[in-house]
Amino acid sequence: MAAVTILAVGRLKRGPETELVSRYQTRLKRLKTSLREFPERQSKSREGVDLLAALPGNSFVIALDEHGDDMASAEFASLLGDRLDQGQVLSFIIGGSDGLADEVRQRADRVIRFGRLTWPHQLVRGLLMEQIYRAETILLGHPYHRV
């Protein structure tokens, strides 16, 4: 079983965003994914300290940031598969409403974005969970991902 951790600033409340995250989390078979939430602070820097302190050892860190690289789903799946095959823990970081601290972006092994649009940080969790699920189906040869 592969270890994937999502570290996110802010707490999801009951509602459609939480249901979306839960739906994809329960579908995952190989890429078991945990979500840790951190309180929003008065500064991105303080949030960054919290996030970086919580990273599991030997993590390959992927930060989600509006200034990150675009990535196709198949490329994303390949990145995840390669890192997991090397025995690394995958850690995704989602900042709060003000984004990520510079220290978090500097620590990240990859910085990616979900397109050029700006997404609410609460909604990004559901988008990320769906992409992790899509990556798993690509890696397993399941027909969920259609091209």
Task: Give an overview of the whole structure.
- The protein has 147 residues and is of the alpha/beta class.
- It has a single domain (2-140), classed as Alpha/beta knot (3-Layer(aba) Sandwich).
- 41% of the residues lie in helices and 24% in strands.
- The chain is built from five helices and five strands, in the order βαβαβαβαβα.
- The chain has helices spanning 16-27, 44-53, 73-85, 102-107, 121-140, and strands at residues 2-9, 31-38, 59-69, 89-94, 110-112.
- A five-stranded parallel beta sheet has the order 2-1-4-3-5.
- Helix 3 (73-85) links the parallel strand 3 (59-69) and strand 4.
- Helix 1 (16-27) runs parallel beside helix 5.
- The protein is globular.
- The chain starts with a strand and ends in a 7-residue tail after the last helix.
In short:
The chain has a single domain (2-140), classed as SPOUT methyltransferase, trefoil knot domain (Alpha/beta knot, 3-Layer(aba) Sandwich). Helices cover 41% and strands 24% of the residues. The chain has helices at residues 16-27, 44-53, 73-85, 102-107, 121-140, and strands at residues 2-9, 31-38, 59-69, 89-94, 110-112.
